[in-house]
């Protein structure tokens, strides 16, 4: 009886966890995205014969208890899709230490930190994005919460360059969309937007343009419906405010703040905006020239096992 | 000979390339390099499926240039740009001291034994 119960619980957990190998995976509600307690800390290098580069240890799950005093503690919520991964990193307090590894893009939602961009250390603040970051995301004494969206996605460029894009000063394009009978209408002129009919979707989009990929930050007014559209590649969307309904390929998905959803390549879909909402979108093109990123995981491993190289 | 190599790209991220190690033929069946400025050598044994302390984002730096030879089993090495190379028994790889990488031993069916030869400095080594 005991074992039957355990098996049932285990089976239930598996059923709740989104499977990144599922090519039909579209919507990952926040409650189905696993959250991993994580710790990182600096690892001093002794007896080096030249310039020394920052090294960190990282621990996950129960292994975070092995982190020394002063370590950075945060949670990492993972949204894994076949074509890419989003991790939402949250620090309640400092210090912020996160070694940039496979991540190809990041966007700061709250707080500030420094990170490497093509060999230079730059300060980034809420609303800033970095394409192909490097080094260590760091803030020794943050003022409150820090939330950073980090992504592992490909880019549509042969040799993409690292870049920081500041949120401040980015132009927001205002858009209204509606169906005029069978005909989709999209307007961007201020007066046309004001005269859009009831039921029109009204939103603004700020585009962060990187080299071969971009972020789109959309702010949507409650009450409208966008026109049907298809994408030339998969899109990964993180909803950071509100509630919307996505209809794609005839299937409806109710999404809310904290969820991720994928707009699938070449599938027609539209949005109904149920509350004032916001989302962050980026491309996740399938790139068969790159091997799959390593997703082996052992949450309770002893920190540093096998990797001490003092 | 060309040696599989972990290096840094212009974005300061690790990637996989090759480097040239000059060899001289000394007999019909042997080629050797010049004497190199090695600092020390070591042997590591990693169990297949060895747990990874930080999950999928665990990566590490050597802060020293070195060659790693796989003496037994298989190792899979990932770079920041997604490049992956699989070392089989007898394969070697050169590591730039700055190249962040992830080493996986899960593909191996037997314990992985590696021999590393570490050179002077913390970044790069020019083979003679």
Name some characteristics of this structure:
heterodimer; A: mainly beta; Jelly Rolls; eight-stranded antiparallel β-sheet; 2 helices; 6% helix; disordered N terminus; B: three-stranded antiparallel β-sheet; 11 strands; 0% helix; globular
What is the CATH H-level superfamily of the largest domain in chain A? Jelly Rolls
Termini gap of chain A: 49 Å
Quaternary state reads heterodimer
Q: Report the order of strands and helices of chain B.
A: EEEEEEEEEEE
Query: What is the count of β-strands of chain A?
Result: 23
Biggest sheet strand line-up of chain A: 1-21-18-23-17-16-14-15
Instruction: Indicate the mean pLDDT of chain A.
Output: 87
Describe the 3D structure.
The complex is a heterodimer of chains A (310) and B (128). With 310 residues, chain A is mainly beta. Chain A has two helices and 23 strands. In chain B, strands 2-1-9-6-11-5 form a six-stranded mixed β-sheet, with no helix packed on it. Chain B is globular and about 45 Å long.
In short:
With 310 residues, chain A is mostly beta strands. Helix content of chain A is 6%, strand content 45%. Chain A folds into 2 domains: 183 residues, Jelly Rolls; 113 residues, Jelly Rolls (Sandwich).
Q: What is the topology?
A:
The complex is a heterodimer of chains A (310) and B (128).
Chain A: H1 2-16, E1 27-28, E2 35-42, E3 56-60, E4 72-81, E5 84-91, E6 96-99, E7 105-110, E8 112-117, E9 120-125, E10 129-131, E11 134-139, E12 146-152, E13 163-165, E14 172-180, E15 183-187, H2 190-194, E16 201-209, E17 214-220, E18 235-241, E19 243-248, E20 251-256, E21 260-263, E22 269-273, E23 277-283
Antiparallel strand pairs in A: 1-21, 2-3, 2-4, 4-5, 5-12, 6-11, 7-10, 7-12, 8-9, 8-11, 10-13, 14-15, 14-16, 16-17, 17-23, 18-21, 18-23, 19-20, 19-22
Chain B: E1 2-8, E2 14-20, E3 24-25, E4 31-32, E5 38-46, E6 66-72, E7 75-79, E8 84-87, E9 92-95, E10 101-104, E11 112-119
Parallel strand pairs in B: 1-9
Antiparallel strand pairs in B: 1-2, 3-4, 5-11, 6-9, 6-11, 7-8, 7-10
